[in-house]
Amino acid sequence: DVADLPGVPDWLPGHLRAEGIEELYPPQAEAVESGVTEGGNIVAAIPTASGKTLVAELAMLSAVARGGKALYIVPLRALASEKQAEFEQFEQYGLSVGVSTGNYESDGGWLGDKDIVVATSEKVDSLVRNDAPWLEDLTCVVSDEVHLVDDGQRGPTLEVTLAKLRRLNPDLQTVALSATIGNAEELAEWLDAELVDSDWRPIELQKGVHYGQALHLEDGSQQRLAVQNSEKPTAAVVRDTLQDDHGEDGEVTEEGGSTLVFVNSRRNAEAAAGRLASTVRPHLSGDEKGQLEGIAADIRDVSDTETSDDLADAVADGAAFHHAGLARGHRELVEQAFQDRLVKVVCATPTLAAGVNTPSRRVVVRDWRRYDGSAGGMAPLSVLEVHQMMGRAGRPGLDPYGEAVLVASSHDELDELFERYVWADPEPVRSKLAAEPALRTHILATVSSGFARSRTELLEFLEQTLYASQTDQGGRLERVVDDVLTYLERNGFLEVNAGELDATSLGHTVSRLYLDPMSAAEIVDGLEYWARHAGEPEASDEPVDATADGAFSTASELAEETEADPEDISALGLYHLVSRTPDMYQLYLRSGDREEYEMELYEREAELLGPTPSEFEDERFEDWLSALKTARLLEDWASEVDEETITERYGVGPGDIRGKVETAQWLLGAAESLAGEVDSDAARAISQARIRVEHGVREELVDLAGVRGVGRKRARRLFEAGIGDRAELRDAAKPVVLAALRGRRKTAENVLENAGHRNPSMEGVEPDPDVEVHEES
Ligand code: ADP
After folding, report:
1. What is the per-residue pLDDT across 14-33, written as a single tens digit (0 to 9) for each?
2. Mean pLDDT for the chain?
3. How far apart are alpha carbons 211 and 213 in whole angstroms?
4. pLDDT tens readout for residues 62-98
5. Phi and psi at residue 379, in whole multiples of 5°?
6. C-alpha span between 330 and 308 (Å, rounded)
7. Domain 436-513 falls under CATH 1.10.1200.10
8. What residue ranges of the chain are covered by domains with CATH 1.10.150?
9. Which secondary-structure segment (H or E) carries 379?
10. 538 Cα to the center of ligand 1, angstroms
């Protein structure tokens, strides 16, 4: 009973009852018995939708009630705002909640006053690197989806961060929430925690496989679907789910419900949503159609792109797609409409399974393989991932049970899928810390922030990681560590003297900037290359000079003597430089791209900050071209090419453009600091390139676009009306400003106010008819 919880604040039982929670779910009760409300360390490995969030809340609220401070680590930035909204319900009881994402370089001082802080593991890692003083006041840390320590990309950061927090404060309560995994007891051992390992669910889940017009479920039963001619399996499931069930006397025994369909790529998600729209449409009531039209209009308002249009078209018919390429506004509208039961089917890539709370009557895992670059082809999903997707089936209180099926196209596949997924247990979670890129970053950070001052201390610290507790290959960690130390020393990030470790000034900067040392090395090399080659005449095969002793010196040798000219550094060159670092997720080359970008490369090679790899170095050359493609996208964006054209030209979604732009902004900011560190003259050019990419404008608009509320399109219109910068905007005639902003008074007033105008009112002002305003090009 929620009235009998030790250690929680007095108001909590009443609050929970008002939320409809009278009793704890069994795994929650087990966590309380294991001391989660009394400062105890807990690893809770329980299925999706079985109330993990409340376990976290019990821990954090009781920690705060004892005068402490709690940190909640989310695995995805997209989840931070969702958790924040959830915890803000406690502000009515006097607690304060802060969220910290993005902007890696600050110590987030203002977070020091908050009782509960929500952040991604990357952000927490960066706070540790920047010595955020309040981290030492933490008394409770919750790590959500801790099984992601298994992720090759991001797992090591989570692992090292938890180890560091626990070292900063040895009494820190650690609560780790995990999906059901094969080796939860190992995680518990690593974190000195009590284990709550359960497969209890609040609503029954039947897993199974769709084959031959029927759902084959794990209890041995089969459900036939009435299939319409030539209907695909997914469509048949969606339609069947939509239909009400009727009892013998014809009354409705169960209302129709919704389906969540998981596919393996964004394009497949969009295509499937388009097709399933025609399955859903005939089942919509007039009222639903009206409401869906309204949501579709909101979706079109979010952005002016083909993705936006396609999504709106599907939503108007009660179907939607959901993937990481969507703008945030799109995602929110889709999730809400699905929860409101207006959208009846969502076709999603696995990001949705990773935590967004959108349960559904049925789940179809349509694709169980996806493209995997490191495997060089299609690779099967893990059991853990498939079970997490399946766990989204069944809405407590609404559905009698949930059903989740994979799709088989042959009898053999039916058997295989049962073996591989339905009856299988999730894989054990393994640390990925020993991978070199991960160690490179984390060893530098560990030394730079003073966690380890010698090789011995470093190895001691690493002993506290999951990796160390899992490995039985003695000596392996030590060998990799030594390789990494050599790399860091050779590139000028660390000094090693008789086993003592010291970060150089460059090393400290790199660690604080949150760069992969390899990215920093690439940027520094690029800047040095530019300093040597700027001002160089067009490359030529001819020797240009003969010295006295008859030896030739080439154009490039001559140029080494010339001072680099900052004006010569092209924005494209800088975009290419940051795009080829391991911190930028490059665009793929599609078929046909290779020729296009090879041509582009030979035309613009002189602008690039580094020597083009030989075509015989296949992988490096390919990488160089992908970086060029990415750089061209950034250049287009910074040249005011409209979003729609960019999405078509590069085959990306609007969310991807934002993603690339944000990463480039961060890396260019870092490059600016590095330029200062190595005495390069490039800082000003880098700053210019960064601001252009931030606002998506050409050089002449940089100042105007920096005025809040202006943005790239309005800046261009103002410029065309003869207003060149912020100062001119303040002094401009109001009718001109109003006309340039297409007669929008509210907007004009806002913009003038943000530009520092003393009296921005537009009352009685009429737009100047002589100002020509172009519609969107
Ligand atoms: P998870 O984080 O494990 O995926 P959630 O914490 O989001 O799952 O819980 C799923 C739903 O169950 C939420 O809507 C939550 O309010 C509800 N819930 C959690 N605990 C209880 C409980 N003890 N009694 C009733 N409902 C609960």
Report:
1. 999 999 999 999 999 999 99
2. 88
3. 6
4. 999 999 999 999 987 777 877 888 899 999 999 999 9
5. -130, 145
6. 8
7. no
8. 697-777
9. strand 377-380
10. 66
Q: Which residues contact 182 (CB under 8 A, 6 or more apart)?
A: 425, 426, 427, 428, 429
Residue 641 has pLDDT above 80, yes or no: yes
Shortest-distance Cα residue to atom 15 of ligand 1 = 51
Contact 522, 577 (CB under 8 A): yes
User: Which segments of the chain belong to CATH 1.10.3380.30?
Assistant: 517-696
The domain 2-197 is placed in CATH, from the list 3.30.230.10, 3.40.50.150, 3.30.70.100, 3.40.50.300, at 3.40.50.300
Pocket test for ligand 1, best of 21, 60, 76, 387 (most atoms within 8 A of CB): 21
205-422 CATH fold: Rossmann fold (3.40.50)
Q: How far is the CA of 48 from the centre of ligand 1 (A)?
A: 9
At 376, the pLDDT band (50, 70, 90 cuts) reads low
63 lines ligand 1 (CB under 6 A): no
CATH topology of domain 517-696: Sec63 N-terminal domain-like fold (1.10.3380)
Give residue 203 CA to ligand 1 midpoint distance, Å. Answer: 11
Ligand 1 center–CA 68 separation, angstroms: 25
The CATH fold assigned to 697-777 is DNA polymerase; domain 1 (1.10.150)
Q: How many angstroms separate the CA atoms of 634 and 636, rounded?
A: 5
Ligand 1, atom 24, residue with closest C-alpha: 21
- Within the chain, all domains assigned CATH 1.10.10.10 are found at 436-513
Which tens digits make up the pLDDT trace of 224-258? Answer: 988 777 889 999 999 999 987 766 776 766 677 89
166 alpha carbon – ligand 1 mean position (Å): 28
According to CATH, where is 3.40.50.300 located in the chain?
2-197, 205-422
What confidence category does residue 564 fall into, taking pLDDT thresholds of 50, 70 and 90? low
Length of the chain: 777
Residue 47 CA: nearest ligand 1 atom is: 3
Burial class (CB in 10 A: 0-12, 13-18, 19+), 213: middle
CB crowding 510-535: b at 16 or more within 10 Å, else e: bbbbbbbbbbbbbbbebbbbbbbbbe
Dihedral in degrees, nearest 10, Cα atoms 134, 137, 142, 143? 50
Would you state the pLDDT for residue 85? 85
Q: Is a pLDDT exceeding 50 seen at residue 357? A: yes
- 547 has a pLDDT exceeding 70: no
Task: For ligand 1, say whether the CB of 693 is within 6 Å of any of its atoms.
Answer: no
User: In angstroms, what CA-CA distances link 589 with 596, 620, 628?
Assistant: 10, 13, 10
Q: 162-202 pLDDT, tens per residue? A: 999 998 898 999 999 998 888 999 999 999 999 999 989 98
In 3D, which of 285, 347, 290, 338 has the Cα closest to residue 316? 290
623 and 587 Cβ atoms separated by less than 8 Å: no
Q: Name the token pair of 213.
A: 């017009």
Q: Which atom of ligand 1 is nearest to the CA of 20?
A: 25
The single-letter code of the amino acid at 233 is P
